[in-house]
Write a structure and sequence with these properties.
This protein has 241 residues and is mainly α. The chain has one domain. 70% of the residues lie in helices and 0% in strands. The longest helix has 33 residues. The radius of gyration is 19 Å and the shape is globular.
Length: 241
């Protein structure tokens, strides 16, 4: 398989994982909001893992599509695919403690992505230690030897778990951008004095433009070192055999 075909297949795998991960992310927001007293998201059917409930035309479709097709049309390089879902509706006056509960709802999404990262890591360790051919598949995947040589079930699973780790860590770091509609913007808004909110909301109107410019850069700063930690943690288990 040619290198360009490999990159396209990997990007499509990432997109499928992205749809699932964003669904979990937004569902976590909605679930936490419901637990804290605001049933708005529940009534709109947002406590669901159905991707159609959470798709944002720009964040879930256009932005990832540009990442996937970019290398083939001369628009930037490849890399991990990420984006955002349709914001969960929240009426903060329904919370008992508005600022605290709003922050907890915002935190629920990135926390869900970290949980998915941990689950994928554990599954990768189980694959390496308990499945015949799993150890070599995990080592090959970590070394970037995806789809090289003969494909196998362990190799496909290793790639799936590896990409799930990458995508969910990317989503976690991406949401640290304090720009609407990303999660960190809620924390920033709750910290600002009242007379600064209008200025912040005005800047937020250009959020999509800022995200398009800074998104990949910010994720790249944190994702590389984070994946290095994942590799180091995996190597501890791989050395045990």
């Amino acid at each position: 398989m040619q290198a360009s075909s490999i990159e396209l297949v990997i990007a499509l795998y990432q997109f499928v994982i992205l749809l699932f991960s964003l669904s979990v992310h937004e569902c976590a927001h909605a679930w936490m909001s419901s637990r804290l007293g605001d049933q708005t998201a529940r009534l709109e059917g947002r406590i669901s893992l159905n991707p159609t409930r959470h798709i944002d035309p720009i964040g879930t479709l256009l932005y990832p599509a540009l990442m996937i097709l970019g290398p083939f049309i001369g628009f930037g390089g490849g890399g991990v695919v990420f984006g955002w879902g349709k914001p969960v509706p929240i009426i903060t006056r329904n919370f008992t403690k508005i600022t605290r509960d709003d922050n907890l709802v915002s935190l629920a999404g990135p926390a869900a992505n970290l949980l998915l990262t941990l689950v994928a890591f554990v599954l990768m360790v189980v694959l390496a230690l308990a499945i015949p051919g799993g150890r070599s598949a995990v080592i090959g995947t970590v070394q970037g030897q995806i789809f090289l040589g003969e494909a196998s079930a362990p190799q496909a699973m290793a790639m799936l778990f590896w990409l799930m780790i990458e995508v969910n860590l990317a989503l976690f770091f991406f949401n640290f951008l304090p720009i609407p509609p990303l999660d960190a913007s809620r924390f920033v808004r709750n910290l600002l004095p009242y007379n600064a909110l209008n200025t912040f909301d005005t800047i937020g109107r250009f959020g999509f433009v800022i995200i398009f410019i800074l998104g990949r850069f910010v994720v790249g700063i944190f994702l590389g070192p984070a994946m290095g930690i994942v590799v180091a943690a995996l190597s501890v288990f791989l050395r045990q055999r």
